[in-house]
Every structure is written in structure tokens, then in C-alpha cells.
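Field log, afternoon session.

UNIT: design team B
ACTIVITY: writing a sequence onto a fixed backbone
BACKBONE:
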């Protein structure tokens, strides 16, 4: 049986105490059912906290609170007021960066770094970026040819109550990625964190309470996807769903949202190609493509899991990327030496190891890694070492399905035409990478790869000003950038007949 961590030194004080509650209408409350569930540290299998298990009743209360706030005091916040709130939140997150990061480290298993606060810098930057928008969101005066007396203009108005459902692979950043555009556009929200890793989003909720913000603007309901998540996606009082997670669940969200035709934005899965040409800087490509797939134990939506290598350098690359994989230190996420932490949960571990077995059955060969680590202390956690498969055919399931573990499929190619076609031969379209010194190849593939982002001679770069979103089964709409705002805004046409 897992044991409870009682104020273990070095761990955030937030872990100590009773079950974490739901934030509804500015109050922390237990689930209506009184139920809770355990949150585990995937490095050790220990229970680190209990969390309220919200369901449809709690979602209903939270939606009422969000509607009340939307039609109440929040409407009277000027753009400059919303800017101030976002800047305040950025400062608070920055001041609590270390603690928030540690919660993700123990709850989700992402490795702590020497400077945990620096790991939160991207989330702080996102809040400050969105703080710039409220004062710049506006409609237009439009000339019309109907009558000189007719004055026509547009208004951009918040879409209303947003149900934001996030996954576990980056809990704090995922939460901030939804909260920031909600506050910037004047919407209100119910955030449903993932059941595997809700602690950082809940602690963020406490910081949000310190803001000069009316109750009910941000509500947080923790619980399972099939109950709390599904209730949010189907609720008639929710105007929009913003979802990040698997494509399978994305489809269910779309179905559930059909009754009241909710606006839906989806950031879904991927099976991203990373293409390495023989003329590339091989040192940079080994490191870039290696981290591009193994980072966060491969639990990254845009992980470059299909590594296509020009045949001339295939064997050398395979050897070098394998050596890189072997050099990475796998361990407890709290150990600052750790580069690869655990998989988030037993269920996800089973999924990943299931794919490792399947790959071998399908005829692929494991060059390194290939199974769960069970040495010493690691046996209690959910550890899978960086794994490299070779002899992979394009039609194998390991080459087509999102594994969401530290697993690379390295495959040779011969021509640009061939690799462009193979890159696109997937239902997904989230990200792609190209490594070459040849500008014409870079431009050609940047245009031909059908994904929402293409990185050339780099991988996993993000900036609040750059859009992030998927083509094909990888999603609808964009996160971050100017283009994300319209996902949270309605446009209204106003006609004023000023004839006497
Ligand atoms: P999931 O997509 O089912 O879960 C993501 C979020 O959706 C969680 O908050 C969950 O509670 C909620 N959810 C689940 N079912 C729901 C429903 N019917 N209605 C509303 N909300 C619901 O992902 P899960 O089960 O955690 O992981 C399974 C696989 O999904 C992974 O192996 C991975 O391949 C993929 N995944 C992809 C992510 C990405 O960012 N691309 C993130 C997380 C998982
Ligand atoms: Mg956990």
C-alpha cells in the first residue's frame, strides 16, 4: 500500500494537510459527494495528497458561479483592469515559482532542475504576454454602401463561460495556458485539471484568490475525465471548451459539445516527424532530435517520435543517438542529477510498456531501453529508460500511434520527395523537425510538412507570440499568439441608422 508523505523536508508545505478542495465561486469546498482520490508521486508510488473528486453536481455549481461572474462584476473590469490582474498573477507565479515547480516535480514526475524557478519562466512570460492584449482587443469601423446615414462597426466580445480541460504532462503550464487567454478576453472559466497531477493547478488557484478578481471568474473542479470532464463538455451553461489531451478524448469532447454548439478548441496528440539530412550538423541533430523525443520522458504532445535519417548517415546517427539515450540519467524527479523522470502513472506505464512489447512483436528491434526499470529504488516508481527502435516499417502501430513515452523510431530515407510523403502519412499534424544546412531543403519541407509547427535545425521552441496548434487530427485552433484570442471572442456586427 502506498504511504502518505507527512511534511517530508524539502517538499512544499502545500502537500501537508487535509484533502485539497474545489474552488467554486471564490470558496474552497469539498466535492458534493464528499469523495476524494489519491494523488501519487510517480517516482516512488507514494500518496502525496488527497484531492476532492468533483463530478457533475460540482461542475453545475461551478458553471453557475462562472455565469454569475460573467454577467456580474467581471463585466465592469476595464481592459486596463484585466491587464493589471494578469500582471499581478505573473508576479505571484514568479514569486512562488520554486514551490509551483516542485509540485509538478512530485505530482507529475518532471525532473527538478538546478534552477526550478527558471523552469516556470515560460509560464510567467505567457501571463505577461497576455497582459498586453486586453488594451489592444478591438473591433473595426467598417464602411458600408447601404446608406450614408448607416454607421457600421464591429465589437469583439468575450465568448462567455469556458470549460478548460487539461492533461497531466505539464500541469502548471497547461493551467496558465488556459487561464491567461480567459482573463485577457474577459471570459470566465471552470478549469478541470488532470486527475494524475492536479496539485500545481490547485495551488495556483490559491494564488488567484489573492488577485483583485471577483469570485467565480476562475473556478477549479478536480475529478475524473469521464465524470467531471464529461459534465463540463456537455453542460449547456458552458459556451466554449478549450481542451488539451488525446485525440480520442478530443473526439468525445466534440460529440458532447454538440447539443448547444459550443465553441471548441483542441490541442491534441501527435506523431511528429523529425527529418535528418546527411548535410546537417550532426552533433546538433543528435542532441536536438534526442531531446526532441526523450524530453519529459516523451510525454510531450509535439515529441519528434518518428526520426527519419538520410540513409548515408543512418547507421552513424543511430549509433550516436543511442549513445545519447544511454547517457541520460534516469531517476527520482527530485534528484537534481536526474534528466529523465518517471512516467506519470501506472496506467501510462502500462500503455508505454505495452507499445514496447508490441514493437518487438511487429518485428522492430530495440537498440537500447525497451522495458520498465526495476533496479533498487526505481522499482517503486514508473521508470522507462530512453528507448530506440530500429527496423521499423511505416505501417507498424509503433510508427503510427502516439506512445507518449521516451520512445524513438529511427528510420532511413533516400529522397526529399519520399521523406515529405512519409512525414505526412499519419493522421496527426502537430509538429515536425528538419535538420539540414541546405536552405532549399529547409524551405521545401517547411512548406510541405502538414503540421502546425515546423522547426528547422532546432526542436521544441516556444514563444508566447508564436501560434501553436495542430493540423489534421492534432486539433482545432491555436494556442498562444494573436491567433489564440479569436478562440475566446465573438464578433458582433452593429448597425446604427442615424437618419433623421
Ligand atoms: P486524456 O486525453 O483522456 O486526458 C486529458 C484530460 O481530459 C484529463 O483532464 C482527463 O480527465 C480529461 N478527460 C478524459 N476523458 C474525458 C471525457 N470523456 N470528457 C471530458 N474530459 C475527459 O488522456 P489520458 O487518458 O490521460 O492519456 C492517454 C493518452 O492520451 C496518452 O497515452 C497520450 O497518448 C495521450 N495524451 C496526449 C496529450 C497531449 O498533449 N497530446 C496529453 C495527455 C495524454
Ligand atoms: Mg500525481
Amino acid at each position: 500500500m502506498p504511504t502518505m508523505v507527512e511534511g517530508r523536508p524539502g517538499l512544499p508545505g502545500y502537500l501537508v494537510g487535509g484533502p485539497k478542495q474545489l474552488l467554486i465561486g471564490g470558496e474552497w469546498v469539498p466535492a458534493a459527494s464528499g469523495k476524494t482520490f489519491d494523488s501519487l508521486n510517480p517516482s516512488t508510488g507514494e500518496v502525496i495528497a488527497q484531492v476532492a473528486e468533483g463530478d457533475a453536481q460540482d461542475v453545475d455549481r461551478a458553471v453557475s458561479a462562472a455565469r454569475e461572474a460573467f454577467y456580474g462584476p467581471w463585466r465592469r473590469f476595464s481592459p486596463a483592469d484585466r491587464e493589471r490582474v494578469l500582471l499581478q498573477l505573473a508576479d505571484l507565479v514568479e514569486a512562488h515559482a520554486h514551490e509551483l515547480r516542485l509540485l509538478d516535480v512530485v505530482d507529475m514526475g518532471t525532473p527538478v532542475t538546478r534552477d526550478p524557478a527558471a523552469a516556470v519562466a515560460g509560464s510567467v512570460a505567457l501571463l505577461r504576454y497576455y497582459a498586453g492584449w486586453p488594451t489592444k482587443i478591438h473591433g473595426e469601423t467598417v464602411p458600408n454602401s447601404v446608406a450614408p446615414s448607416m454607421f457600421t462597426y464591429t465589437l469583439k466580445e468575450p465568448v462567455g463561460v469556458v470549460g478548460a480541460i487539461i492533461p497531466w504532462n505539464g500541469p502548471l503550464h497547461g493551467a496558465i495556458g488556459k487561464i491567461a487567454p480567459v482573463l485577457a478576453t474577459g471570459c470566465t472559466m471552470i478549469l478541470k485539471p488532470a486527475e494524475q497531477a492536479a496539485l500545481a493547478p490547485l495551488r495556483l488557484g490559491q494564488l488567484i484568490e489573492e488577485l483583485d478578481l471577483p469570485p467565480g471568474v476562475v473556478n477549479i473542479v478536480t475529478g475524473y475525465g469521464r465524470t467531471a470532464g464529461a459534465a463540463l463538455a456537455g453542460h449547456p451553461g458552458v459556451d466554449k471548451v478549450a481542451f488539451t489531451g488525446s485525440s480520442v478524448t478530443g473526439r468525445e469532447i466534440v460529440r458532447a459539445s454538440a447539443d448547444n454548439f459550443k465553441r471548441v478548441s483542441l490541442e491534441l496528440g501527435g506523431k511528429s516527424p523529425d527529418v535528418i539530412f546527411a548535410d546537417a550538423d550532426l552533433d546538433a541533430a543528435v542532441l536536438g532530435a534526442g531531446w526532441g523525443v526523450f524530453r519529459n520522458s516523451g510525454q510531450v504532445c509535439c515529441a519528434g517520435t518518428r526520426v527519419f535519417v538520410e540513409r548515408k548517415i543512418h547507421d552513424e546517427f543511430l549509433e550516436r543517438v543511442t549513445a545519447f539515450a544511454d547517457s541520460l540519467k534516469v531517476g527520482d524527479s527530485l534528484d537534481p542529477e536526474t534528466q529523465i523522470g518517471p512516467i506519470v502513472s501506472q496506467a501510462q506505464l502500462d500503455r508505454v510498456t505495452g507499445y514496447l512489447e508490441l514493437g518487438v512483436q511487429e518485428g522492430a528491434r530495440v537498440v537500447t531501453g525497451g522495458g520498465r526499470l526495476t533496479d533498487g529504488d526505481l522499482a517503486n516508481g514508473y521508470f522507462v529508460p530512453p528507448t530506440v527502435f530500429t527496423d521499423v516499417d511505416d505501417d507498424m502501430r509503433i510508427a503510427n500511434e502516439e506512445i507518449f513515452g521516451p520512445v524513438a523510431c529511427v528510420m532511413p530515407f533516400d529522397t526529399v520527395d519520399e521523406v515529405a510523403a512519409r512525414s505526412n502519412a499519419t493522421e496527426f499534424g502537430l509538429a515536425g523537425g528538419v535538420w539540414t544546412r541546405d536552405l532549399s531543403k529547409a524551405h521545401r519541407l517547411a512548406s510541405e510538412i502538414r503540421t502546425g509547427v515546423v522547426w528547422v535545425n532546432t526542436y521544441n521552441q516556444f514563444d508566447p507570440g508564436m501560434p501553436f496548434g495542430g493540423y489534421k487530427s492534432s486539433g482545432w485552433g491555436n494556442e498562444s499568439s494573436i491567433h489564440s484570442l479569436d478562440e475566446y471572442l465573438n464578433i458582433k456586427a452593429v448597425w446604427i441608422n442615424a437618419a433623421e
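LOG NOTE: The chain has a mean pLDDT of 96.
NEXT ACTIVITY: expression trials, pending approval
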